[in-house]
Design a protein that fits this description.
Distance between the termini: 60 Å
Helix content: 55-70%
Radius of gyration: 27 Å
Strand order of the largest sheet: 1-2-3-6-5
Largest sheet: 5 strands, antiparallel
Number of helices: 24
Number of strands: 11
Amino acid sequence: MRGPHNIWRLIRTGATLERTGAMKAILDAFEAPPLVRIALRTLVWPFQWLGLKGDPDMPPITRALSVLGPAYIKFGQILSTRPDVVGGELAVQLRVLQDKLPAFSTEVAKQSVRDELEMPVREVFSEFSDAVAAASIAQVHRARLVSTGEEVAIKVLRPGIEKAFRMDIDAFYFAASMIEFLAPASRRLRPSDVIEHFEGVVLGELDLRLEAASASEFAANTSNDAGFQLPVIDWQLSGRRVMTMSWAEGAALGDNAALDAAGHDRVVLGERVLQLFLSHALRDGFFHADMHQGNLKVAANGDIIAYDFGIMGHIDEYTRRVYAEILFGFIQRDYQRVAEVHFEAGYVPADRDVDEFARALRAVGEPIFGMDAANMSMGRLFSYLFEVTERFGMETRTELILLQRTMVVVEGVARSLSPDINIWEVARPVVEDYIKGSIGPKALARDLAKTARVLARFGPRLPAMVETLLVNQSTASPKPAAQPRNGPVLWGLVGGIVGAVFMMLIAEFF
């Protein structure tokens, strides 16, 4: 039943892009060839009357994305951080999608707060402002607590946002399935898996209790990070559709004029935002995955303040090490090692030639490192790397999608602050520190200690396990060739326990 609805949704998307003038603006921004322009415009033009009008006071692309729905707005937010891709003028226009969308009424917001907290708003807040920021999924109000007089920020979900988001996702799934059917070569990119990953990420934004939990974990991980602040969550005044946190006072990171007027060093800020992201991703494996300018401020003392924790990324320790080695290999221009890491991790099929892959990586890296600092882009590297891995049959790694996407977004933020920033030199010390700490004797001792802790949890069950092995051995049929088989198992088990205890003792010194 959803097929016709999704076809209609996609037709209306194209029609809206044409009707608002966004289609032409997009084709111009990406310098599309004449044949592509003619084909797309001819295909969509007859249906433009079906398109949504949007706000005529907005620029074409912003106008189209803002009226199409939350998932499209998310896409526009990503593009707003990439002036190197879409151009400075379009990037500035798209920043409206970060936190300056039309707000729903304050009375509706108060009703949501009343329903969620199960108490009248006036009993909790002595002041409750109109929306100070409105994005695709929620909006924020400034308020003051009756009990303490403290200023707080109240985040409230948009009415009906769950249904609107589901409609977008259904259409995206339909488009992905059509792409896989019509273009079999695209299956290695796993379009449906990518949409599923995107869905899972954004669903976390639709339950503010999950966002509050993410904020709490993020705060615990980063409590000792210099130059970095997070607002404090008020759990008593938060729920599924409402979240209350301390007010973050500062200049918007996307407002260069305000930053300059406040005397902040934008070069330092650009380096710090990139290094903080890398540190969180590599050190903790838990990072803010929506680090555009609309979610970052600069405090009076120069600290970067992050908020809006609806989209957080998580990568396991093994993947972090693989990713760090790939980045470090490119920084060192050690393409052979980068190739070997891809093969060791199983990212590239084992039947391919590792030396040939290394040469292909060199063809990717050397032109980029030969550029001036302003053009040495990680986004460009990922784009070229994508072309190379396609030739070698590498499938899309869904566990890295969010990390790579955020990496590109953070690079865009850093470049908006300092256009000539050398991304690779800024990244080098963070990646080097992580490599030193994750590879070597100390790292091995930590890994073995973790293994020991896992074994220790099975301690109460070990006597029964040993007894079972002994009983099975004593009651087994006398088969000479089979007799020794349980011996190594027992000795291995005992040796593992002794070794685990030993490594736990060693780990105490690291």
